[in-house]
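BACKBONE STRUCTURE TOKENS:
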Amino acid sequence: MKIPNCVGIIMDGNRRWAKSKGKLSLQGHAAGGETLKKAVDWAKEIGIKHIIFYTFSTENWNRSSEEVTYLLDLIGEYINSELENFNAKGGVLRCVGDLSKFSPKLQKSLKDAEIKTANNTGPCVYFALNYGGRQEILSAVKKIVEKNPKVEDITAEYFEKHLQTYPMPDPDLIIRTSGEMRLSGFLPWQGVYSELFFTQTLWPDFSKEEFEKIIEEYGDRDRRIGK
């Protein structure tokens, strides 16, 4: 079976899952967090080297203050509770996005986790936090403008080095759960040739069996990449 090197996942459907079960939205996010933990293990078992989760987008700030606070607290709790096990398994944690808007406590937890796992063998797990594709591209442009390079030096490779995800490889495939068929600002530069998979399954119900089925279907696709 052909195994993708890098997989992106848009974890969607937590609130709809909660509503369908008569639960609070916050309970849906907690259930989604449990699925995320499992997905990291699934990826490692299959042999995927890089996996990036769309964890908190720049648009998520528009939600209620209660939900935003809960989401950020959940991220912090996940890091604190799972780091030792994650590190023991050889995982590498990297955070991409504008972390400056988070509390100093959360920023420190994320940075400490990156430092602690930096020399592990992998797989590399990326959390896209306060991330948005347009924001990332604008940030890269500003960095380049500040350096004032020669026009001829601004190649695609040069530009990529200024993206927040660098040096993450481009995702071979991107999965979105919950039936929505759009990328919502997720990796617009990096995902131009990604294979896209959209599933009706709500994220908390996403299973290992469905994940493996998607990987199998990916292996059957003919990725010509413009050829």
